[in-house]
Structure formats: structure tokens, C-alpha cells
Amino acid sequence: MACDERTIRVTFTAGEAFSQRPSLAVNARWAPCAWRLEESASTAALATAKLEAEVNLKDGAITFKDPLGGTVLRARGRSSNEMTPAGIPGETAYHILQMFRLSPEESLYGLGQHQDGRLDRRNGNTVLIQNNRDVAVPFFVSTKNYGLLWDNASHTEFHDGPDSTWFWSEVADEVDYYVILGTSLDDVIAGYREATGRAPLFPRWAFGYWQSKERYRTREELLSVAAEFRSRKIPIDVIVQDWQYWGKLGWNAMDFDPEIFPDPKGMLDALHAKHNLKLMISVWPQVAAGTAVYEDLAAKNHLFSTEIWNGGRTYDAYSPEARDIYWRHLNKGLFAPGVDGWWLDATEPEWHWTWSLMDAKTGIVRNGQTALGSSSRYLNSYPLMTTQGVYENQRRTRPDRRVVILTRSAFAGMQRAAAAVWSGDTVAKWEVLRRQIPAALNFCLSGLPYWTMDIGGFFTSDADSYPRGVEDPAYQELYVRWFQFGAFCPLFRSHGTDTPREVWRFGEPGSWAYDALVKFDNLRYRLLPYIYSVAWQVTHEHSTMMRALAMDFPGDLLARQADDEYMFGPALLAAPVTREMYHLRGRPQVEVQEEGRRDVYLPQGAEWYDFWTGERSAGGWTVSAAAPIDIMPVFVRAGSILPLGPFLQYSTEKPADPIELRVYRGADAAFALYEDENDNTNYERGQYALIPIAWNEATQTLTIGARQGGFPGMSKTRTFHVVWVEADRGAGLEPVLAPNRIVRYAGKAVSVKCEN
Which residues carry out catalysis? Predict the structure, then answer.
């Protein structure tokens, strides 16, 4: 079936008719596209303007071709595939296997989040089962600019070896997959999101700093932390309340225990009005007997029978009625008083603490029948259903408010529910930090754009970790490096147990750890005009914020394999420090005066500026970049325009004015500065503004174009400080006091020439 010009769906069955069971992942309503069918004695070919699928009529093998006739991918024929009865009680279902033939030179990325340290998913086996630190998304992309969405939610495995490549799934009606051919990896991901849903735009506050820990135990503690951030002038937008705020009311009662959190509306009003902070709160899919939400769900038979480790039972998110009941209690106890965002924890759904994928599967399967069918069939799709339920119900309750959801698991299509993922309950170790990078890049290359993590690792008390926590200089060093990495992730969030995580727990002003943390927090806020504009590209253009180097440098073989650096938006190359430089675990002292260094590969096809010094280097080689404790290497691609805002205490403290436009010369550049009302849904109806900005290398001219669009409350005029970046000019965190040009902008196009 030709879905659109770049997407063809393949389905085959052992039955007499194709299944009418709707897909949970794919929700597209494709417009008819032009296609043609060409038949010969041995083949039948379905072709659009951009993709062709040629079927061998003898054995059913399919060759996917580009418009020039080049082979993109081969699906092997019937003799290499399997459909065997699955033995699911009460259902006709099959185990399915489809084999493919790939080109030896291509690399594959995606398939969710797997913390095995592998970026390229070739030459290995990937098991797709949801678990605490594993996210199952049955979609991959190839450096040959195609993607494959395997539309199956059961236990699935992807294998690639020298002799075979295949998908296998445990429960299916039929084989069902989509091949998407693009002109780039961005184009492939755009095709995936056209099939599974557009990612809504998070509010501006979501791109600021989130402070979390396990857990704030009282109203007084939470408000005192808010006040401390403000008194110290440490930028922050979100405080996160972890579990057990419900106290004696029962597990996940969706309400505050009045003894430990009295007057929750008053508390939320104080956070909003006095401290200019948002509150995100932990909510679980399990509810305990005796809570009102439990009783209402049980009365309608919408609870799975298995009792889990916390004594609760999991609600059946596959039932629309159950999702509505769940939201009704969420709304009454938490949303109506003023909670701003949802931390939907343990959405695998978790049944007990385990790192074993097969053990996690056993627990989910024990839930038995869902409202749609067996838990085995729908094994991996629970996070999609529960996030979608919260998203849709909040939009119905408050159509004007944007939704923010953080959750621990994901499935194909979950980006349409305004849901981000964090990497689970990690351990504070350098190797764990290093593995976060390829895990994040593969997750984002699975078509889901928003990812974060527990900065500093969730656990610190393991014997081979940092049981002294913040008192240990070795942990302080690890935390600072993790925090620096976090500042260059789509969402910037600190969380963990065992030891406090607030910035002042790591020292006082003037101490190396405190100053390094505040420096990168401030940098995040100066970057907000850039980050928010890139977030708009994610929504409007199906772009990706956290980008494996293969997305921008597909012809560079070294870039394709780089698993410890990445592009953050179109301009910035981030190279986190993932090894200790000053302190070995267990040693009593730390010396930060010594200059650490970190090798960074600069992709070929561009020149690069060191963000911290302004020095310019050629691409295609590895440089030794300075990495003292307060520096994470960051490079800027020549031919970039980087908008930096003023220092802020929170994301909407004041308009982003003046904006410093750092121009990195060496190639033509373009960037669109995006602005809207920050936290409502009017942008969906066209109420936003874009200011196109372009640099012409040949004429050495910067043009700030005519403003496009507008919105209520928009600043009619603004000031741009234009800086031509060079060595020791326009570098680092601080604004340039004497910019090359000051432009008073009133919405009409303005051009300025560089005469250096």
C-alpha cells in the first residue's frame, strides 16, 4: 500500500483476510497520493514518485528502490520468513519473523533506548521489552536514508549479523511494517512523525532547569528549596515533587496528605506567584486499595489482577473509560489546584524491581487481558496509552494549556502525547554517564525528540559508587560533568536518591563545583532563544534537537560512529566529559587547577569555532580541547547564527532583549528566531512570530528579515547585538560589551555588513 510518496506499507498474512485490528502507533490519515502498478510475468511493482516496492511473484521477496532504481532495502521471500501459531488463549495469533538484506556499508540507529554503549545497531541483537532502563520502539533509520517501522507491540527482537537481518515478534495477526524513504535522516523522521503523530511544542518553561530529588517530604521543605534558589539567584523553572506526597491517603491517591502538605492550592499559588516556579508531580499507573481512584476503577473492572511491589494494582490504560476515570481523579486532586506537569513513573508498567527484560515481561504478561486483548500482544504499548490518556484529557479540560509529561518508557507514536522520556534509575558511575550519550541519540533517532536523565545518576550509595554522596569530591566531579552534559540535552533535569541534588549542596560561591554548576545553568538560560526556536523546528518541521553526527554529516564515516559527541540543534557540537580528570574514587583530595583535556572529533565538510575561545579549526580531524572542571568542550559550526538572550532567573522573567547574535563566518548561514506566548496553545492557530536571519558569506552581510506573523503581547521593537565571532571575541558565557553592530529592529528587514 502506498501511504504517501515516501512511505509504503507491507502486510502479509497466513489467514484468508487481512486483520482489521487498528494500529496503536500509526494514526495518520494519509491523503491519496499518485501511484502506479507495473506487472510482468515474474514481478509486480508498486511505485510512487519517491519510492518503489518490487515484489518477486515466485517467492514474495520485495526490493525497495529509490526513484533512480537504486536498491534501498530487500525483504527476503517466504522461504526465509515464519508465521507459526502463537498459542495465545482465546486468540488466533502467530509468532512472526521477517528477514531483510542490508548493504554492508550502512549504519542503523534507533530502536528506542538501550544502555549497552552501542550507537550503531548493526552486528548485534536488540530485545524490545520495556523495562526500567530500556525503552522499546520498533523503528530504525539507516544512513541510506530510509526508515523501517515494525508495527508490532509484543515482545520483539531485532537481529543483525553477517548472514541475516530480521525482526521477530511473539504475537501478531500478520506481518505489518512501513518503509519510509527520505532525502536525509531528518526527512525519514519527518515521514515517521507524519505516520505516528506530530510532537506538540512544550511551553518555554520546560526548557529551563528542573530540580528534583527523591523526595521533598513536606510543604515547608519544598517551599524552602524554592526560596533558596531565588535568594541565591540560581536560574530555575521547575521543582519536581516525587512520590509519597499522598502519605496516609494511600499509594498514588492523586491528592496531598493534609498533614504533610496542607493547603496544596496555597502552596502552588506561592510557587507560581512568589517564586515564579512550576511544579511537576509524580503519578503512577498503580493505585492502592482504599483510595478513591482505586474504588472507582475497581467498580468498572478496570484494574489488572496482579498486585505489585507497592501493594497497588495497575489500571487498564487500554480502556477509554479507565483513562477518563484516572484523569478525573488526577484533575480533582492535582491539576485543579495548580500542578503544571506530569511525571508518569513506572509506565512499563513496572510490577517489581528488576533489571531483567524477561522478568519485566513476565510481570506485564501476568496482567492478563487488557481492554483490547492479551497483555502479550500489547506488551510494549502501555506507556503510549497512559500518556495519551493524560494528554487528551488535559487538552479537553484546559484546551488553552500546553501539556508536559515525563515518563520512563515509550512506544512508537508517543511524541504526539507531549511526552518526554528519562533514562531510568541509573547508577552514579562514569561508564554509566558515557553510555547515556548513545542511548539518548538512538532514542531521538527513533523519532521521539525529547529525552533527559537523572543528572548525577539516580543511585549513589552502591559500594562501587559514591556512598558519601555530595561530601565526596569525586562525586562532585562526576556530578559537575553530568550537569554540563544535561545543559545540552533537550530537557535539563537533576534527580536522584541517596544524596541531595540542589546546587548549594555541592559547595558555596567561590568553590569549584558550585561555580561550575551555576555557570552552566546560566549558559542554558542564555541559550533559550536558540533552544526554543529549535523546539519550534521539532514541532513545525519534524526536526530533532539532540542529533547524532550522522544526521548532519552522513558522508563522514568517523562522524557516523561517534558515540560520545553530538549536535545540539543545527549549530552546536557538544562533547561531554565522561572520565574523571582530577579525582579517583576513594581518594581524599581533588585538584582543579590542572587543565584537563578531551579529544573531540570535528566532522569534515565544515570549519569549527571553539565556543569558549572563538578559535577556528578545520574539520575532518580530532582536536585536543581544553576541559578544565568548568568547561565542557562545545564547538560551533562555521556558517551558524547563534542567538543568545540575557541572563535570566526563569524562562519568562523578561523579554529576550537584547539578543546577542553571534555570527560564525565561513559559510552561508540561516536561522529563524521563533517567539510566541510561551505557555498556551495559540501557536496551533498561527499566533506566533518568526524573524528570519541570514548570513551571506560572499557579501559578508547579515540580514535580519521582516518579521513573519505575530501574537498578543509581542514586543514590536527589539535590539540585536551583532558579533562577528573570532578568537577571543564573542566567546564563552558572558555577553560582548562592545558588539560589532547594534541593530534597533522594528519588524522590517535590516542588513548590516561586516567590514573586518
Answer: 345, 348, 425
